[in-house]
Amino acid sequence: MKTWQQLLAPYPIDQFLAEYWTQKAIHICADRPEKLQTFFSWKDLNHLLNYHKLAEPDIRFSIEGKSLPKTSNSQDWSARLREGATLIVNKVHHRIPTVTQLAANLRYDIGYETHVNLYCSPAKQQGFDCHYDTHDVLILQIDGEKKWFVYRETVLYPTPDMHSANQPKPEEPPYLECVLKPGDVLYIPRGHWHYAVACEQPSLHLTVGIECQTGLSWLSWLSNELKNNTDWRQRFPVVVNGNTDAIEKQLTALRQHLIETLHQPDILHKYIDSLNYRSVPPLPINLPAQMGTDIFHNGFMTRFAWSPLHRIRIKQIGEEHYQVQVGSKQIDLKGVPAKLVENLFNQDEFSLIDIADWAPALSFDGDIAPLITRLVTEGILHVH
C-alpha cells in the first residue's frame, strides 16, 4: 500500500477506508506541497504537447461545459487555453513513465484497474458543468489552486451506461466545498455530483479513475466462462404455433448447468484470481538485453532489477520447483535452491555477486547464467 499511503498522507489509510471510501468525498491537505510533482509537472505537459502525436479523443478542450471542435493544430491549443478553455489529455498513464508507474502501483495497492487523465485549466475558468462519474476518482492537484463543489448522489452506484446527463441533478447544496492547493488530494466516490473552478492562477491536476468491480462485473466474467460450454452457444428452438415447450426445456437445462457451475468449489477463487491479472500493464521492453545480447556487460558487478510495473508471485510446486507469476506471464523454475529463491525474489535490485553469496554451490556457466538469461529474455528481469 506504499503508493496509496503516499497519496493519502498524512491521513490514515484505515480511517479513510472505514469512513470515506465509496461513502463520501474528502479533501486531504498535503503534508508536502511538492510531493505530487514527482509524478507530473508543467515540463511533462509541455513534453506531451510538443513530442506526442495527440488527437481526439485523447486530447480535447471544454469551456463552460461545452466541448470545442477538434483540432490537430498545436497552435490552436495554446490559443484555446488563452481564451479560457480547459485542456484534457486522456490516458496519460500510457505516455509519461512516472504516471505509468503511479497507475501500476495503485493497481496493485487497491486491486482494481486505474487510468489517469490530465486537466489544465486557465485561471478563474470552469471547464465542465456539474456532473458525476461512474467510477471513483482521486484528484491530484499538481500546481495552482482549484475550488471544488461536491454534492450527494441522486443515483446510487451508477453503472457506465447511466450517464449523469440523463439523470436528475441534486437539489441540495454541496456537502463539501474546498480549495485544492499543490500536493492536495480530493477523493470523490462514483455517483457524487461535482464541478470545479480554477482560482487566480492556471491549475494543473491529474484525475485517477478507479474502476472497481461489482456484482455485475462478476456476472460478466461468469458469462465469458460459460461461452466455453457449447450448450450456452446453441440457438433456442423455433416456436411453432406458439408452443414454447422446447424453449422451456432448454432453459431448464441451462439453469441446472448454471446452478452446478455456481456450486463448483473453486468458482469464486477463479474469479478473484482473475482480478490479479486483469488490465495489468505489459512487461516493459529492455533492449538489447532482452534479445539475449550484452546481459552481463559489467561482469560480476552487473546489476539487475525486477520489472518496475509488476508484482511477483511465487508458488512452490515441489522440491526446488517454483512457479513464478509476473503480470500475465507465468514461468516454471526447476532445480533452484530455496535460499536463492527466497533472496532473489525479495530484492528490488541485486548483482551476480549477491547471487554467489546466496547460492555458493551453483556454477556461473551451468546454473546462474542460464537462469538470469531466461528471466531477462522473458522480460521479467531488467539489466541495469
Mean pLDDT: 92
Strand order of the largest sheet: 1-9-6-11-5-4-2-3
Q: What is the total number of structural domains?
A: 3
The dominant shape is globular
Beta percentage is 15-25%
The count of strands amounts to 17
Characteristics of this structure?
three-stranded antiparallel beta sheet; 384 residues; Outer Surface Protein A, domain 3; 12 helices; 17 strands; alpha+beta; eight-stranded antiparallel beta sheet; Jelly Rolls; 3 domains
Please describe what this structure looks like.
With 384 residues, the protein is an alpha+beta fold. The protein has 3 domains: 2-211, Cupin (Jelly Rolls), CATH 2.60.120.650; 215-275, no CATH class; 289-383, Outer Surface Protein A, domain 3 (Alpha-Beta Complex). 31% of the residues lie in helices and 23% in strands. It has 12 helices and 17 strands. The protein has helices at 2-8, 13-19, 42-51, 74-82, 97-110, 215-226, 230-233, 245-262, 267-275, 338-344, 352-358, 364-377, and strands spanning 26-28, 59-63, 66-67, 86-89, 113-121, 136-143, 146-150, 176-180, 185-188, 194-198, 203-211, 303-306, 312-318, 321-326, 329-334, 349-351, 381-383. The strands form 4 sheets. It has an 8-stranded antiparallel β-sheet with strand order 1-9-6-11-5-4-2-3. Strand 2 (59-63) and strand 3 (66-67) form a beta hairpin.
Write the layout of secondary structure elements.
Elements: H1 2-8, H2 13-19, E1 26-28, H3 42-51, E2 59-63, E3 66-67, H4 74-82, E4 86-89, H5 97-110, E5 113-121, E6 136-143, E7 146-150, E8 176-180, E9 185-188, E10 194-198, E11 203-211, H6 215-226, H7 230-233, H8 245-262, H9 267-275, E12 303-306, E13 312-318, E14 321-326, E15 329-334, H10 338-344, E16 349-351, H11 352-358, H12 364-377, E17 381-383
Antiparallel strand pairs: 1-9, 2-3, 2-4, 4-5, 5-11, 6-9, 6-11, 7-8, 7-10, 12-16, 12-17, 13-14, 14-15
